[in-house]
Amino acid sequence: xxxxxxNLTEWLISDELIPxxxxxxxMKARAKEIANGNANELIWLLEHPPLYTSGTSAxxxxxxxxxxxxxxxxxxxxxxxxxxxxQRVIYVMLDLSKRxxxxxxxxxxxxxxxxxxxxxxxxxxxxIENRIGVWVERPEKSNKxxxxxxxxxxxxxxVSFHGISLNISPTLSHYNGIVPCGISDYGITSxxxxxxxxxxxxxxxxxxxxxxxxxxxxxxxxIKEIP
Length: 227
Known about the structure:
Blueprint: E1 9-17, H1 20-35, E2 42-47, E3 51-54, E4 71-73, E5 80-83, E6 87-93, H2 103-119, E7 125-126, E8 134-138, E9 144-156, E10 159-167, E11 187-188, H3 200-215, E12 218-220
Parallel strand pairs: 1-2, 1-12, 3-4, 9-11
Antiparallel strand pairs: 2-6, 3-5, 6-10, 7-8, 8-9, 9-10
């Protein structure tokens, strides 16, 4: 496969913790290059240091402890969420002008990516009406449901950025400084919390397999360092 094949999506994994402002600047620059036809689409898998982000619908009252971690205005849709080690962040920079220009369908495809990945580890994820993200039933908690993945995207010139955060083994108490996604009646869970001790690399392999089934072929990115 040729590196400049614009029909393929580059796949990039960062091993170090990426500061949030640095990630946002990189995404914005890459999305602009994609929109201009000068770069391939890109999926970027990474982890952040502990932090909170606010989306365009965030309510100040949902920031319970503003001093617990740094807080960043993300510009994406949604409300407050947490990022930190043990959480796989998946930034999705895709050209929707070539994919139907249907943002609702695009988000559904991201939900499908998460649900099909979870299913490979015998975790049943589901979508619940009027709630954003992917949820897991917890019958041991009086049939409550807990959130395992958040989804929040932004689209500029029909190129998406931001994306998905999937909880593998984060410190769940770190969510205590916010009302995650504005929903206080339900909890947050993870692979580890559900009893699935899985490495990030194992999840990444399945994510790539399922992404290719839903969105198309990928190739390894030649990006060596994030500016």
